[in-house]
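Comment thread on ticket #2218

A.B. wrote:
> Attaching the input chain for the structure job we discussed in standup.
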Amino acid sequence: MTLTSVLDDKESKNGNSGGHFSELLKVEAKLALRTPFGIGLGIALPFAFLILFGAISNAVGGNVANSGYTVLDLYIPTIMVIGFTFIALVGLPNPLVRYREIGWLRRVSTTPVPPSRILAAQLIINLTFVLATILIVIFGSELIFGAALTVAIPYFFLSLILSIAEIFSLGLVVAAIVPTQTAQQAASGGLAFLLMFLAGLWVQPVQAGGILETIMYYSPSGAAVRVLLDSVFNQTPPLTTMLALVVYTIIFAFIATHYFRWE
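C.D. wrote:
> Ran it. Output below, let me know if you need it in another format.
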């Protein structure tokens, strides 16, 4: 079944809404697997970084600056946030921008299919891949490399929810304001690499120092890394950083809602 047949079937029948949504979800999932750029990067890239930093930790050995943690331990939150970033900025907006560019979003807006269902399907699919990323990073780091994680469960789940909500809201901003797939790929790529830098992949905030350290700590990706870093080592994340994530989410969600267009 194609997306066209799902829409046409919905136009001719108004009942069985749950069945129609399940069919839509299956179609969207198949299409996502056929063009797995964001999803592939969102899962493959964190796995590659996990292997890289795990190898560095084994080669270097010992603790980082007498912290009691290895290089891999300290980079686990960064690796997770990088995965979230590529899924949210590439995997989520790509089909929405493509549908708008070829006229599908406009057609959906004129059918009985609630527009929210396409967005819901995309969110479910991409959040599934986010869950896969989390499981790969957490269990891979513990089982393969023996990372010493003592996760504070309540704070960890809260940190995950805030981080994912914020980064996905930014992905929806891209979907809302970027007009074409070509522009979306350029915007998503540029934003993703900027957020990788701000997350501390190449330079840690404490190494940057000065005003750049503060910017990195309170940037969208840096704040996400900071709350996750504390929560995976059984510490309470800073309240100011959690509030920053909430504020970013509200701002990004407002922009995405206000500027989204069907065509």
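A.B. wrote:
> Thanks. Noting for the ticket: Confidence is low (pLDDT under 50) at residues 10-15.
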